[in-house]
Amino acid sequence: MEQLDIVIIGAGAVGLAIAAEIARKDRDIYILEKETNYGQATSSRNSEVIHAGIYYPKGSLKAELCIKANPMIYEICQKHNIPHSRVGKIIVANGEEEIKQLEGIITKARECGARDLPLIDSDRVHQLEPHVKADAAILSPTTGIMDAHGLMDHYHREARRKSGGDPLVLNTEVTSIKQKGDGYVVEMTSGGESFSAKARMVINSAGLHADSVAEMTGIDIDEARYRIHWCKGDYFSLTGKPPAKMLVYPPPPLDAASLGIHTVPDLTGRLKFGPSAYYVNEITYNVQGSKDEFWEDIVKYLPDIKRENLHPDMSGIRAKLQAPGDPVRDFTITHEEDKGYPGLINLIGIESPGLTSSPAIAEMIGEMVQEYL
Ligand SMILES: Cc1cc2nc3c(=O)[nH]c(=O)nc-3n(C[C@H](O)[C@H](O)[C@H](O)COP(=O)(O)OP(=O)(O)OC[C@H]3O[C@@H](n4cnc5c(N)ncnc54)[C@H](O)[C@@H]3O)c2cc1C
User: Fold this and answer.
1) pLDDT computed for residue 1 by the predictor
2) Which residues in the chain show pLDDT less than 70?
3) Strand duo 144-146 + 173-180: pairing
């Protein structure tokens, strides 16, 4: 049986970022990915927003890692020619109640260390985005958009360069993980055949399936509160000239499942709206949401949008730890020594802002690996 130092399960943005951080010529690493290529799941089905860490609770990993990673992403993109744009974002309010909501968001964001978030008036909003209807808005100049595939290509290149080979193993699904001696026997299937390898460390970054992968090790995922709830988000694209160049968000809905239907400009100049949020039991990527509901949300802040110019576009699925109606949950990133699994690191519930946070998550895992190996 092959003896490895580290197995990373899942080649999305997070698994690849970790590989890019921890790969070394003297370390045997595999990244195991069940699909035919990397980044086929959530990492290629999202808004590609470089978040500024505005909404997350103080002391949460989401706030800490996103705020840390925002400038890292810009630096990586600039240095490695990854398409990106610092388009900026406004969170708009109409009416007293929504303005109060924005003031609350600013206070919380400042407590977390997200600064440079002025509350601007309707004249300033009009100067920035003439078609947007708003009595006031929070302006976030450090929010932007990026090419998520470009970022993942970079992580993959970096992992190859540092390891002196290609650690990525595609078409390979992990089916079982058993603790043995000072490591883990990882069983996998590829092309109908089964293989196994022994690794001193296992890093579970399996996205929508990270709870099932954690369960393979013997962890009781209900006791550990690791069960993932899939929460789908649809996008509708707009035909015609985009009425806004910035990211324009409504105040976040009170259900805490999403940030609301916002504009999603992409790097080619197209504009989408989304993502919605509804819980599902199966992974399918057809757009199921109602155009009417999208349109009703959008015209609150972009009143000129015509219903007939909206078209079903794409969808993505969030790996949420919070069940429907539950309060927001944080990322879970844990070295499971305390549960009796030294060398096992679980990353569970890496929903938004996971793409933005990926380089900071990778640094955090790098420190855990450094301490252990
Ligand atoms: C609608 C939506 C919008 C979002 N918008 C943003 C945004 O604008 N900005 C932002 O920062 N974040 C955003 N996010 C969050 C972001 O997309 C995720 O946090 C991030 O992509 C998670 O990456 P990952 O590598 O953990 O998961 P994934 O990309 O899902 O990768 C996990 C991988 O594990 C593989 N895998 C699973 N099980 C196994 C197994 N048993 N064996 C082998 N391989 C396995 C899967 O095939 C997959 O490739 C959004 C998410 C959604 C759903």
Assistant:
1) 80
2) 256
3) unpaired
C-beta of residue 309 within 8 angstroms of C-beta of residue 240 = yes
On whether the CB atoms of residues 365 and 333 are closer than 8 A, the answer is: yes
Q: How far apart are CA 354 and CA 362, in angstroms?
A: 11
- Would you say 125 and 67 are in contact if contact means Cβ atoms under 8 Å apart? no
User: Six-digit token pair at 135?
Assistant: 């009595």
Q: CA–CA separation, 175 vs 199, rounded Å?
A: 15
Nearest CA to ligand 1 atom 17: 43
Ligand 1 binding pocket (C-beta < 6 A) is 9-15, 32-35, 40-43, 45-49, 51, 173-174, 205-209, 213, 233, 275, 316-318, 350-356
> Cis before residue 312, ω within 30 degrees of 0?
no
Residue 264 CA: which ligand 1 atom is closest? 8
pTM for the predicted model, two decimal places: 0.97
pLDDT tens, residue by residue, 117-168: 999 999 999 999 999 999 999 999 999 999 999 999 999 999 999 999 999 9
Q: Which runs of consecutive H residues, i.e. helices, occur in the chain?
A: 13-22, 61-79, 96-112, 122-128, 148-163, 210-216, 291-298, 354-372
Q: For residues 40 and 11, what is the distance between their CA atoms, to the nearest angstrom?
A: 9
Q: Give me the amino acid identity at 50.
A: I
Find all residues with CB under 8 Å of 318, minimum gap 6, and list them. Answer: 42, 230, 231, 232, 233, 277, 351, 352
Sign of the torsion formed by the C-alpha atoms of 337, 343, 344 and 350: positive
Residue 61's pLDDT is what?
Answer: 97
